[in-house]
Amino acid sequence: MRPKQLVYFLAALTLAFALSGCIFVLGGLQISNASFETNYWNGDQRNPTYYVCDNKTTLLGYSFRYNDPTLLAGWDSYLKGFATKDEAGFASFNANDPRNDTSNRTVTVTYNIPARTAPLSLFPQAIVVNPTPVPSPSIIGRTYVVIKVRPTAGSDRIITLGPAYVIDNCP
Questions:
Q1: What is the pLDDT of residues 55-85, one digit of tens each?
Q2: Radius of gyration over alpha carbons of the chain, in Å?
Q3: Are strands 40-41 and 132-133 parallel, antiparallel or unpaired?
Q4: What letters, b where the CB count within 10 A reaches 16 and e where it falls short, cover 125-154?
């Protein structure tokens, strides 16, 4: 091999190793199909809007998929008010939690939000488990579902779902 060809070969080999390292670094835990739902909604199956009731306990569920069970260390979730940025309902889970289905690579969590505990917005803003349609919701705020997914290596993945409108006239 000529010296010039050897230099090109070594440069190409170095670049290939560098790029494979970048792909590995940029890979890691990937999150997809994140969604949430509550047991109160607008009744529109094509474009559902979910509500958190301020006057009643609300059942909220969320789920997400991930690419590799060996890369998931755990996750945290909570509600965060739109304008106030107040947080409520913090829960932390590890990868061994039964809500983590490693065979399907899916996390599914359902929990109750007691009345008058959801963080609110200061401004009035205009997983279905036996959903109850609310015909004329009286919206008093907005809140978001925040999920912080903790990988075994690297930085956390933050998922923000919503808004869920907080209403005070659930049937």
A1: 888 999 999 999 999 999 999 999 998 888 8
A2: 22
A3: parallel
A4: eebeeebbebeebebbbbbbbbbebbbeee
pLDDT digits (tens, 9 = 90+) for 139-165: 888 999 999 999 999 999 999 999 999
**Which domains does the chain show, CATH number per domain?**
29-167 (2.60.40.1930)
CA 129 from chain centre, in angstroms, equals: 18
Angle at 137 between CA 132 and CA 140, to 5 degrees: 125
Distance between CA 14 and CA 157 in Å, rounded? 31
Q: Hey, what are 133's tokens?
A: 């349609």
109 and 101 in contact (C-beta within 8 Å)? no
97: its two tokens: 């939690």
Residue 52 is encoded by which pair of tokens? 């958190």
Instruction: Give how far Cα 137 sits from Cα of 27, 35, 132, Å.
Output: 43, 22, 12
pTM of this prediction? 0.75
